[in-house]
Amino acid sequence: MSTGVNAPRPTAVTKLDRVVIRFAGDSGDGMQLTGDRFTSEAAAFGNDLSTMPNFPAEIRAPQGTIPGVSSFQVHFADYDILTPGDRPDVLVAMNPAALKANIADLPAGGTLIVNTDEFVKRNLTKVGYDGSPLDDDSLAAYQVHQVAMATLTQGALADTGLGKKDAERCKNMFALGLLSWMYHRPTEGTERFLREKFAKKPDIAEANVLAFRAGWNYGETTEAFAVTYEVAPAKLAPGTYRQITGNTALAYGLVAAAQQSKLPVVLGTYPITPASDILHELSKHKQFGITTLQAEDEIAGICAALGASYGGALGVTSTSGPGIALKSETIGLGVMTELPLVVIDVQRGGPSTGLPTKTEQSDLLQAMFGRNGESPVPIVAPQSPADCFNAALEATNIALKYRTPVLLLSDGAVANGSEPWRLPEVDDLPDLTVEFATEPNGPDGTFLPYLRDPETLARAWAVPGTAGLQHRIGGLEKADGTGNISYEPDNHDKMVRLRQAKVDGIPVPDLTVDDPSGKARVLVLGWGSSYGPIGAACRRVRKAGQSIAQAHLRNLNPFPANLGDVLRAYDKVVVPEMNLGQLALLLRGRYLVDVISYTKVAGLPFKAEELQNVLTDIVKGVDAA
Amino acid sequence: MTTTDLGLPGLAGVPTSDEPQKAKDYKSDQEVRWCPGCGDYVVLNAVQSFLPSLGLKRENIVFISGIGCSSRFPYYMNTYGMHSIHGRAPAIATGLATARPDLSVWVVTGDGDALSIGGNHLIHTLRRNVNLKILLFNNRIYGLTKGQYSPTSEAGKVTKSTPMGSLDHPFNPVSLALGAEGTFVGRALDSDRKGLTEVLRQAAEHRGSALVEIYQNCPIFNDGAFDVLKEPGEAERRLIPLEHGKPIRFGANGEYGVVRAGFGSLEVAKVSEVGEDALVVHDAHAEDPSYAFALSRLSAQDLSHTVTGVFRSVRRATYDDQTRAQVEDAKASRPADLASLLRGKDTWTVVG
User: Fold this and answer.
1) Contacts for A484-492 with beta carbons within 8 Å, 24 or more apart?
2) pLDDT digits over A301-323, tens only?
3) pLDDT of A2 higher than 70
4) Partners of residue A191 in chain B, C-beta under 8 Å
5) CB distance from A476 to chain B under 8 Å?
6) B288 touches chain A (CB under 8 A)
7) Disordered: where is this region (chain B) (predicted)?
8) Which residues does B32 contact at the CB level (< 8 Å), separation at least 6?
9) Which of A165, A187, A536, B131 is the most buried (most CB within 10 A)?
């Protein structure tokens, strides 16, 4: 702990195994930053953690309104946790809108910390409160702490010479300081962070540090808070950890892919929520041989990536669902020309513009089938923020080895959420080096660009600049071997089947089933970011004395070879998805197993409690039958 | 000998060949499948005859096309090539040219491909000034889809899709390219082998995006669209050939010239009436594009006048050169230390 803000503690200390805190305020209140800093403190302390930012698509919705509310939820614990938490134990509400939008999620007995300065008539009326909820008994079920955060912050900064408005803007750091005190968090990281962030404005940096300390000291000196809490470090697997978001992990995975493949990476992309941070991150790491190209539109982004791949680079494009719709034709060209391409879809609520800042898993069928013709592409879906690193390496490996576009299906929850990541040993990362064709491979010194490796069915990849191997490729059907234009009926039939066989033949690891009891009759099968809530729900079901088996799909195309056997081994298979049953449709069609589809499309991740109830009912039903 | 020694900045970095080359070296083994009499044949021959003069290694030349009759072009070239998707060739070529400074990248496109479905990519490629050469075959009609009007068809065009006449006002591709901040814009006729070759040569020399509009006859769906520019007696009084540093003068006996008019515009005048000194001396290197734009406006949709040659050729840093320079700068100033990147600033260690 740093000096300066830490004095002896008079209050009682309660030990907790886990806490969920939600910071909520206006879009301009800096709630994402506040939550992010608290998360970093928890990470530095060694807790396991999981976070969920939730913010509007508008940059600054009208101040003080419900649509303008931005929140950040962080779940930290002394054991390994799987989700950002269903409901907060502590809600910090910076204004009436934040209170109104979030109070329903706070369970009775929960702690509510309110910035009273904003609870004035005008703000209350704006969100439809007749009187102040702080003055009636509507909040009687909660432990309410009323703190005049703006006033206290301004008071603390009175001597800094900072204007009243600038001083008031530091109130989020006051809130952070107070919560940091309550939960015995380390503080030096935040102070260092603030001084770095505002390095060019030292007076602002010091003001924020002062506000942060004022919040801490407020907790320390007032007697309003009788108890503080400790959440011990988690007993995670040995190793060195850092906190990471999904988008950052994905970008790092691509940097690692550049190193491991020894290829330059060209990211051709167009800004879109919630994928833009991948572009932002990669654009900072050009020293790894990474080129980022912000194109004129989604189509140009993927086309530039494919053009770079044609030239022997690793082409990557990043987008969300609406962008995939625009890129479809180029993905098809990648399938036809059999060039490597990594296509990242950070899924968001749809259709159309949908819910740009909310999460959904509804692009699975678009990824699988959203192109003209028989156009198979491998699909990889990370299950958590840190897993995005490995998913990027895996997608790259498949793309390079099989010369094919690969769809990487992330989503808003994984992309913006964060968790501890055990750092991999760089020396242990997979070798992704590629062998380009350099010699003729056909009769009489000719080059056959569509001659295939008998094992992988990948075609020979000769890049421009290779003497003697000049050839032409394109979107028209290829003659087997030569790659020349061919309209022959039998050739087309053969090529369609070859392209399918190539993707079908990609070896993916067998599906593993987690069933500690070994007696489960119900299997719950998910994919992508629902891993956390499904896993948490399974733990609860088992804790209640019932058996349930869990498996999670990372490879959506091709499916693991044992998937059919796994599905048929259980009396019931439940498939929870944040869509209307897209994986369920594929499973029923492919394996003729009548899975139970449980779906929700609220723009938010599943809650563990909700899935627990669903699974419990099904398990009981099977046991009773 | 390098391309820089040869005075070809547009091809700097592209390896040259010491082997003498012939046009037939650039012919692929694929049968050319354009309609008999198509202007595309003439352009193909001109390009195949011209490329040996650059002395580049054939394997370092790439032709990228979109969709349309002209976009079959790469199949007939014994170089590397990609026949891509409708309108997207400039975007694909941008990625390729950015990734590979050692390639001479050519885009082959048509009036529908470049100006209709691919209009966005065309203008953004030109403003970025990516080092690639765009050959825009303009036949003022959709050929491959069997005869609908195109964005360069004259208004009122009667086609299968416009039996009562087309309503759209057409693009002037040269004006469009200049408005899109193009650094090199030229025009040639398919039938004018010498003029076309000269524009191609200058385009190849230019470092940056070069747009060459080629008037090309479609004998099936728009036959004779440019005949007035080829008929003796008509051609001379309609075609205005440009030559840098020379007064702009044309006509069978040089009786016409181009002079300045109001508001920065240009007009055609009889030399006998305005005098030789009034003629505009062509300056393709003028920084201000409004001069080249004024030239482009002399070309009328009814072909009463058509300016050919190089309208504009100015130097501006290219997108791909600058992109690569940023990567090189980053490599020179920061170590590519993956372990350090992954570790970041804040880590903690769990001991077993």
Assistant:
1) A484/B30, A484/B75, A485/B30, A485/B75
2) 999 999 999 999 999 999 999 99
3) no
4) none
5) yes
6) no
7) 1-26
8) B41, B44, B76
9) B131
Question: For residue B34, which of B124, B143, B111 has the smallest C-alpha distance?
Answer: B143
Distances (CA, A) of A593 to A111, A513, A557: 46, 17, 18
Residue A7, pLDDT > 60, answer no
Render A237-267 in DSSP notation, one character per residue.
Answer: PSEEEEEEEHHHHHHHHHHHHHHHHT--EEE
pLDDT in tens, B62-115: 999 999 999 999 999 999 999 999 999 999 999 999 999 999 999 999 999 999
What tokens does B332 get? Answer: 């020179």
Domains in chain A and their CATH numbers?
12-231 (3.40.920.10), 242-428 (3.40.50.970), 435-507 (no CATH), 522-624 (3.40.50.920)
Q: Are B209 and B125 in contact (CB under 8 A)?
A: yes
- Contact of B258 with B311, CB cutoff 8 Å: no
The pTM for the full model equals: 0.94
DSSP single-letter state for residue B208: S
Contact A291 B88 (CB under 8 A): no
Q: Which residue has the tokens 């190849």?
A: B204
B6 has pLDDT over 90: no
Residue A346's DSSP bridge partners are: A410
Furthest C-alpha separation in chain A: 92
Read off the pLDDT of residues A460-480 as tens digits, 9 standing for 90 and up.
999 999 999 999 999 999 999
Rounded to whole angstroms, how far apart are CA atoms A224 and A286?
A: 51
Domain of residue B170, residue span: 9-225+317-343
* Residue B287: inside a domain: no
Q: What are phi and psi of B144, to 5 degrees?
A: -65, -25
Q: Does B145 touch chain A (CB under 8 A)?
A: no
CB-nearest partner of A256 from B64, B82, B338 = B338
- Output the domain CATH number for residue B119: 3.40.50.970
Spatial distance between the Cα atoms of A338 and A332, rounded to a whole number of angstroms? 9
Residue B280 clears pLDDT 60, i.e. is over it: yes
Given CB atoms, is A237 within the 8 Å cutoff of chain B? yes
pLDDT of residue A61: 84
Instruction: Give me the number of domains chain B comprises.
Output: 1
pLDDT at A226: 81
The ipTM value here is 0.97
Contact list in B for residue A432 (CB cut-off 8 A) is none
Question: Of A40, A243, A311, which is closest to B99 when you measure between CB atoms?
Answer: A311
Residue B304, domain member (yes or no): no
Alpha-carbon distance of A456 to A459, in angstroms, equals 9
Based on C-alpha coordinates, what's the Rg of chain B?
A: 23
Q: Does the pLDDT of residue A58 top 90, yes or no?
A: no
| CB contacts < 8 A (A, B) | 210
CB B186 within 8 A of CB B212: yes
Structure tokens belonging to residue B200: 């191609």
**Which residues lie below 8 Å from residue A609, measured CB to CB, with a gap of 6+?**
A86, A537, A540
CA distances from A618 to A282, A412, A544, B207 (A): 45, 29, 14, 69
In angstroms, what is the C-alpha Rg of chain A? 27
In the prediction, which pLDDT does A3 show? 40
The strand ranges marked E within A295-360 are 314-319, 341-347
Is B140 within a domain? yes
Q: Are A585 and A527 in contact (CB under 8 A)?
A: no
φ and ψ of A184, to 5 deg: 55, 45
**Alpha carbon distance A288, B125 (integer Å):** 26
The answer to whether A238 contacts B124, with C-beta atoms less than 8 Å apart, is no
Beta strand B266-270 with B256-260: parallel, antiparallel or unpaired? antiparallel
Residue A303 to residue B94, Cβ atoms within 8 A: yes
Q: Which residues of chain B does A329 touch, with a Cβ-Cβ cutoff of 8 Å? A: 85-86, 88
